[in-house]
Amino acid sequence: MTPFARWLTAAALLILAGIAVPYGLMSGPPHGLGILWFWTGFGAAVIALILWGVRGWGR
Fewer CB atoms inside 10 Å of the end CB: C or N, the chain? Predict the structure, then answer.
């Protein structure tokens, strides 16, 4: 698997998690700080994915 294919797979899984977790697993009764921690972790994962994707641009 090429590095781009790995990155694209990670992006697809992250997008899927961004839909499935808050609208599937966390739907229903209030989850308190669980929602805050999910979106904080999701944001950090998006930043990490962007940094992973652009790390070789300066070469």
Answer: C
Dihedral, CA of residue 38, residue 41, residue 44 and residue 50, to nearest 10: -70
Using CA atoms, how far apart are residues 22 and 13, in angstroms rounded to an integer? 14
Contact in structure between 38 and 22 (CB atoms under 8 Å): yes
- pTM of the entire structure? 0.85
* pLDDT, tens digit, 9 for 90 and up, residues 3-58: 999 999 999 999 999 999 999 988 888 888 989 999 999 999 999 999 999 998 87
